[in-house]
Amino acid sequence: MKIATFNVNGINGRLGLLLDWLAEAQPDAVCLQELKAPDEKFPAALLEKAGYGAVWHGQKSWNGVAILARGSEPVVTRRGLPGSPDDDQSRYIEAAVRGMLIGCLYLPNGNPAPGPKFDYKLRWLENLLLHAQDLLAAGVPAILAGDYNVMPTELDVYAPERWRDDALFRPEVRAAYARLVDQGWTDAVRQLHPEERIYTFWKYWRNAFERDAGLRIDHLLLSPSLAPHLTACGVDRTARARDHSSDHAAVWIELDDPIWR
Fold first, then answer.
1. Is residue 166 within 8 Å of residue 111, measured between CB atoms?
2. Of 164, 171, 160, which Cα lies nearest the Cα of 216?
3. Which residues catalyse the reaction (predicted)?
Protein backbone atom coordinates (compact mmCIF):
# COMPACT_ATOMS: atom_id res chain seq x y z
CA MET A 1 0.00 0.00 0.00
CA LYS A 2 1.38 3.39 -1.02
CA ILE A 3 0.56 6.39 1.16
CA ALA A 4 1.66 9.96 0.45
CA THR A 5 1.53 13.45 1.87
CA PHE A 6 1.53 16.49 -0.39
CA ASN A 7 1.23 20.19 0.41
CA VAL A 8 -0.36 21.33 -2.85
CA ASN A 9 -0.21 25.07 -2.07
CA GLY A 10 -3.63 25.79 -3.60
CA ILE A 11 -5.63 22.82 -4.83
CA ASN A 12 -7.66 24.56 -7.52
CA GLY A 13 -4.80 26.60 -8.92
CA ARG A 14 -2.66 23.46 -9.22
CA LEU A 15 -5.36 20.86 -9.83
CA GLY A 16 -3.95 19.81 -13.19
CA LEU A 17 -0.56 19.11 -11.63
CA LEU A 18 -2.19 17.17 -8.80
CA LEU A 19 -4.22 15.03 -11.20
CA ASP A 20 -1.14 14.34 -13.30
CA TRP A 21 0.79 13.29 -10.21
CA LEU A 22 -2.04 11.01 -9.02
CA ALA A 23 -2.13 9.31 -12.42
CA GLU A 24 1.63 8.80 -12.43
CA ALA A 25 2.26 7.89 -8.79
CA GLN A 26 -0.93 5.88 -8.16
CA PRO A 27 -0.93 6.29 -4.36
CA ASP A 28 -3.57 4.36 -2.45
CA ALA A 29 -4.08 7.15 0.08
CA VAL A 30 -2.99 10.80 0.07
CA CYS A 31 -2.95 13.53 2.68
CA LEU A 32 -3.20 17.01 1.14
CA GLN A 33 -2.45 20.31 2.87
CA GLU A 34 -2.82 24.01 2.17
CA LEU A 35 -5.93 23.61 0.02
CA LYS A 36 -6.65 27.35 0.14
CA ALA A 37 -10.29 26.66 -0.71
CA PRO A 38 -13.56 26.66 1.23
CA ASP A 39 -15.45 23.39 1.50
CA GLU A 40 -17.81 24.19 -1.38
CA LYS A 41 -14.90 24.84 -3.74
CA PHE A 42 -13.14 21.54 -3.14
CA PRO A 43 -12.90 19.67 -6.50
CA ALA A 44 -14.44 16.42 -5.27
CA ALA A 45 -16.07 15.53 -8.59
CA LEU A 46 -12.84 15.78 -10.58
CA LEU A 47 -10.95 13.75 -7.99
CA GLU A 48 -13.69 11.12 -8.05
CA LYS A 49 -13.39 10.98 -11.83
CA ALA A 50 -9.68 10.33 -11.32
CA GLY A 51 -10.56 7.38 -9.07
CA TYR A 52 -10.28 8.94 -5.62
CA GLY A 53 -12.82 9.33 -2.87
CA ALA A 54 -12.14 12.32 -0.64
CA VAL A 55 -12.92 13.97 2.66
CA TRP A 56 -11.82 17.50 3.41
CA HIS A 57 -11.77 20.37 5.88
CA GLY A 58 -11.43 23.58 3.89
CA GLN A 59 -10.92 27.26 4.56
CA LYS A 60 -11.19 30.22 2.24
CA SER A 61 -7.80 31.47 0.98
CA TRP A 62 -5.80 29.70 3.72
CA ASN A 63 -4.99 26.34 5.26
CA GLY A 64 -7.24 23.36 4.52
CA VAL A 65 -6.55 19.61 4.64
CA ALA A 66 -7.94 16.57 2.82
CA ILE A 67 -7.55 12.80 2.67
CA LEU A 68 -7.94 10.90 -0.62
CA ALA A 69 -8.36 7.14 -1.05
CA ARG A 70 -8.04 5.33 -4.37
CA GLY A 71 -11.14 3.33 -5.20
CA SER A 72 -12.83 3.88 -1.85
CA GLU A 73 -14.38 6.52 0.41
CA PRO A 74 -12.50 7.60 3.53
CA VAL A 75 -14.66 7.65 6.65
CA VAL A 76 -14.17 10.83 8.67
CA THR A 77 -13.51 10.31 12.36
CA ARG A 78 -12.46 13.84 13.29
CA ARG A 79 -12.19 17.38 11.94
CA GLY A 80 -9.93 19.51 14.10
CA LEU A 81 -7.83 18.47 17.07
CA PRO A 82 -9.49 17.81 20.42
CA GLY A 83 -8.73 20.42 23.02
CA SER A 84 -9.04 23.31 20.61
CA PRO A 85 -12.79 23.92 20.07
CA ASP A 86 -12.27 27.62 19.33
CA ASP A 87 -9.59 27.07 16.68
CA ASP A 88 -10.96 28.51 13.44
CA GLN A 89 -8.04 27.31 11.28
CA SER A 90 -8.61 24.16 9.21
CA ARG A 91 -5.48 22.18 9.98
CA TYR A 92 -6.46 18.61 10.92
CA ILE A 93 -8.68 15.89 9.52
CA GLU A 94 -8.72 12.21 10.39
CA ALA A 95 -10.31 9.30 8.57
CA ALA A 96 -10.43 5.52 8.44
CA VAL A 97 -8.94 4.18 5.21
CA ARG A 98 -8.59 0.47 4.45
CA GLY A 99 -8.12 -0.75 7.98
CA MET A 100 -6.07 2.10 9.37
CA LEU A 101 -6.58 5.56 10.83
CA ILE A 102 -4.93 8.41 8.93
CA GLY A 103 -4.50 11.84 10.49
CA CYS A 104 -3.68 14.59 7.99
CA LEU A 105 -2.21 17.73 9.52
CA TYR A 106 -0.96 21.16 8.52
CA LEU A 107 0.95 22.46 11.50
CA PRO A 108 1.19 26.25 11.89
CA ASN A 109 4.28 27.99 10.53
CA GLY A 110 4.72 30.09 13.66
CA ASN A 111 6.74 32.99 12.28
CA PRO A 112 7.66 35.54 13.42
CA ALA A 113 9.06 34.01 16.57
CA PRO A 114 8.72 34.85 19.33
CA GLY A 115 5.22 36.25 19.12
CA PRO A 116 1.50 35.30 19.03
CA LYS A 117 1.88 33.09 15.93
CA PHE A 118 4.66 31.14 17.56
CA ASP A 119 2.63 30.77 20.76
CA TYR A 120 -0.24 29.39 18.66
CA LYS A 121 2.13 26.89 17.05
CA LEU A 122 3.33 25.66 20.43
CA ARG A 123 -0.27 25.28 21.69
CA TRP A 124 -1.18 23.37 18.53
CA LEU A 125 1.79 21.06 19.02
CA GLU A 126 0.75 20.32 22.60
CA ASN A 127 -2.76 19.41 21.45
CA LEU A 128 -1.27 17.18 18.75
CA LEU A 129 0.92 15.45 21.33
CA LEU A 130 -2.09 14.73 23.54
CA HIS A 131 -4.14 13.37 20.65
CA ALA A 132 -1.24 11.32 19.31
CA GLN A 133 -0.84 9.71 22.74
CA ASP A 134 -4.55 8.84 22.77
CA LEU A 135 -4.23 7.21 19.34
CA LEU A 136 -1.37 5.06 20.60
CA ALA A 137 -3.32 4.14 23.71
CA ALA A 138 -6.22 3.00 21.53
CA GLY A 139 -3.87 0.57 19.78
CA VAL A 140 -5.19 1.24 16.28
CA PRO A 141 -2.92 1.15 13.20
CA ALA A 142 -2.40 4.87 12.61
CA ILE A 143 -0.44 7.34 10.51
CA LEU A 144 0.07 11.03 11.24
CA ALA A 145 1.08 12.62 7.94
CA GLY A 146 1.41 16.14 6.66
CA ASP A 147 3.29 19.40 6.63
CA TYR A 148 4.68 19.67 10.15
CA ASN A 149 6.59 22.92 9.55
CA VAL A 150 9.37 21.42 11.67
CA MET A 151 12.90 20.48 10.67
CA PRO A 152 13.66 17.88 13.36
CA THR A 153 17.48 17.91 13.11
CA GLU A 154 20.32 19.70 11.37
CA LEU A 155 20.29 16.95 8.77
CA ASP A 156 16.87 18.24 7.68
CA VAL A 157 17.93 21.75 6.64
CA TYR A 158 20.45 22.87 4.04
CA ALA A 159 22.07 25.61 6.18
CA PRO A 160 21.24 25.13 9.86
CA GLU A 161 23.13 28.21 11.00
CA ARG A 162 20.74 30.44 9.01
CA TRP A 163 17.61 29.00 10.63
CA ARG A 164 18.42 29.11 14.35
CA ASP A 165 15.76 31.70 15.18
CA ASP A 166 13.15 30.56 12.67
CA ALA A 167 9.90 29.06 14.03
CA LEU A 168 10.48 25.91 11.97
CA PHE A 169 13.82 25.20 13.66
CA ARG A 170 13.67 26.75 17.10
CA PRO A 171 14.54 24.35 19.94
CA GLU A 172 11.00 24.43 21.33
CA VAL A 173 9.43 22.94 18.19
CA ARG A 174 12.24 20.47 17.61
CA ALA A 175 11.86 19.29 21.20
CA ALA A 176 8.10 18.88 20.73
CA TYR A 177 8.66 16.80 17.59
CA ALA A 178 11.18 14.65 19.48
CA ARG A 179 8.62 14.12 22.24
CA LEU A 180 6.11 13.00 19.61
CA VAL A 181 8.51 10.42 18.20
CA ASP A 182 9.45 9.32 21.71
CA GLN A 183 5.81 8.42 22.36
CA GLY A 184 6.37 5.47 20.03
CA TRP A 185 5.84 6.93 16.56
CA THR A 186 8.30 6.12 13.77
CA ASP A 187 9.48 8.83 11.38
CA ALA A 188 9.25 6.73 8.20
CA VAL A 189 11.83 8.58 6.10
CA ARG A 190 14.41 8.64 8.89
CA GLN A 191 13.77 4.99 9.68
CA LEU A 192 14.89 3.96 6.18
CA HIS A 193 17.39 6.78 5.56
CA PRO A 194 18.91 7.67 8.94
CA GLU A 195 21.89 9.64 7.63
CA GLU A 196 20.78 10.94 4.23
CA ARG A 197 19.99 14.55 3.42
CA ILE A 198 16.43 14.43 2.10
CA TYR A 199 14.38 17.56 1.46
CA THR A 200 10.66 17.99 0.80
CA PHE A 201 10.37 21.79 0.42
CA TRP A 202 12.32 24.40 -1.54
CA LYS A 203 11.57 28.12 -1.62
CA TYR A 204 10.71 29.63 -4.99
CA TRP A 205 13.45 32.25 -4.89
CA ARG A 206 17.23 32.22 -5.41
CA ASN A 207 17.06 28.96 -7.40
CA ALA A 208 16.62 27.02 -4.17
CA PHE A 209 15.35 23.89 -5.92
CA GLU A 210 18.09 23.91 -8.53
CA ARG A 211 20.70 24.34 -5.77
CA ASP A 212 18.96 21.73 -3.61
CA ALA A 213 18.78 24.28 -0.80
CA GLY A 214 15.82 22.63 0.85
CA LEU A 215 14.11 21.64 4.08
CA ARG A 216 12.52 18.41 5.28
CA ILE A 217 9.27 19.51 6.86
CA ASP A 218 6.75 16.98 5.45
CA HIS A 219 6.66 13.82 7.55
CA LEU A 220 4.81 10.52 7.89
CA LEU A 221 4.79 9.06 11.40
CA LEU A 222 3.74 5.43 11.90
CA SER A 223 2.22 3.82 14.98
CA PRO A 224 4.04 0.78 16.43
CA SER A 225 1.78 -1.75 14.68
CA LEU A 226 2.48 -0.22 11.25
CA ALA A 227 6.21 0.54 11.56
CA PRO A 228 7.35 -3.08 10.98
CA HIS A 229 5.49 -3.09 7.65
CA LEU A 230 7.40 -0.12 6.20
CA THR A 231 9.22 -1.26 3.05
CA ALA A 232 10.06 1.88 1.04
CA CYS A 233 9.83 5.67 0.97
CA GLY A 234 10.72 8.53 -1.34
CA VAL A 235 10.23 12.13 -2.42
CA ASP A 236 8.69 12.89 -5.83
CA ARG A 237 11.04 15.67 -6.87
CA THR A 238 9.94 15.53 -10.54
CA ALA A 239 6.59 17.11 -9.68
CA ARG A 240 8.37 19.93 -7.83
CA ALA A 241 10.46 20.63 -10.96
CA ARG A 242 7.42 21.35 -13.14
CA ASP A 243 6.20 24.81 -14.06
CA HIS A 244 3.82 26.40 -11.55
CA SER A 245 4.47 23.59 -9.07
CA SER A 246 3.91 23.69 -5.33
CA ASP A 247 6.99 24.61 -3.33
CA HIS A 248 6.63 21.17 -1.68
CA ALA A 249 7.19 17.75 -3.20
CA ALA A 250 5.02 14.75 -2.43
CA VAL A 251 6.51 12.34 0.10
CA TRP A 252 5.44 8.69 -0.04
CA ILE A 253 5.86 5.44 1.81
CA GLU A 254 5.02 1.84 1.00
CA LEU A 255 3.72 -0.69 3.51
CA ASP A 256 3.29 -4.39 3.03
CA ASP A 257 -0.31 -5.34 3.62
CA PRO A 258 -1.17 -8.03 6.15
CA ILE A 259 -3.79 -5.73 7.67
CA TRP A 260 -5.77 -4.72 4.60
CA ARG A 261 -5.67 -7.75 2.29
1. yes
2. 160
3. 106, 147 (proton donor/acceptor), 248 (proton acceptor)
Domains of the chain: total: 1
| Catalytic residue selected from 52, 57, 92, 106 | 106
pLDDT in tens, 77-93: 999 999 887 799 999 99
247 CB neighbour count, 10 Å cutoff: 18
- Answer yes or no: is 88 a known binding residue: no
Identify whether 248 is a catalytic site residue.
Answer: yes
Beta bridge partners of 93: 79, 104
131 annotated to a ligand binding site: no
Instruction: Establish if 260 belongs to a structural domain.
Output: no
Q: What pLDDT, in 10s, does the model give residues 236-255?
A: 999 999 999 999 999 999 99
Domain extent, residue 215, equals 2-255
106 is catalytic: yes
Burial class (CB in 10 A: 0-12, 13-18, 19+), 111: middle
CATH number of the domain enclosing 233: 3.60.10.10
Q: Tell me if 261 is assigned to some domain.
A: no
Q: Flag whether the pTM goes above 0.70.
A: yes
Between strands 186-187 and 218-222, the pairing is antiparallel
- Is residue 121 situated within a structural domain? yes
